[in-house]
Amino acid sequence: xxxxxxxxxxxxxxxxxxxxxxxxxxxxxxxxxxxxxxxxxxxxxxxxxxxxxxxxxxxxxxxxxxxxxxxxxxxxxxxxxxxxxxxxxxxxxxxxxxxxxxxxxxxxxxxxxxxxxxxxxxxxxxxxxxxxxxxxxxxxxxxxxxxxxxxxxxxxxxxxxxxxxxxxxxxxxxxxxxxxxxxxxxxxxxxxxxxxxxxxxxxxxxxxxxxxxxxxxxxxxxxxxxxxx
Length: 229
Fold this sequence. Notes:
Elements: E1 2-11, E2 14-24, E3 29-33, H1 40-48, E4 55-60, E5 63-64, H2 70-75, E6 78-81, H3 93-98, H4 111-116, H5 118-122, H6 133-145, E7 151-155, H7 163-180, E8 183-188, H8 191-197, E9 200-205, E10 208-214, H9 220-227
Parallel strand pairs: 3-8, 3-9, 6-7, 7-8
Antiparallel strand pairs: 1-2, 1-4, 4-5, 9-10
């Protein structure tokens, strides 16, 4: 559903990603683990078209999106939840979700979004800035789902969120995958969260994928070693 081939991304003359190859199958959840500064956010921004690609290719459901702008990638089935959530704090919950509808023909959020996030239904008239960190993260995911994506990109969704909410988020992401058949690529530093949701785990280090394992056969100690400072 998502295929990345020999992706190189640079900040000016300094290359940040050195030939990334990865794929996410239909209804598969893949976690990319790595310490701060290893290239996770750069990869997510490059996949979404926020950062230009130096070379390589990105395709969604067989369609090449490498040279498309971000809004065109959304129309081709990519959705992005950035690090730090980036919701519109002055807008209501409902208005935030409606901004995700721009690539669809809908004018109101589908009912299933509120079924996945019942707390947002209760707070739909409240300003986004008045929500807790965990509720804002749910709102950011709901906004991304409003575009009807095939692939959901999540950049460090557990950042600044308490453990009980992280567990709830893991259940919700699995429910989204199971109910909507969505493919999910998530970048993370929290190994326990990644193991809770992912079918496959990749490790990125210094802009390269250095390790890959399926969840059922993962060597947790080895992966944890990559994440230790």
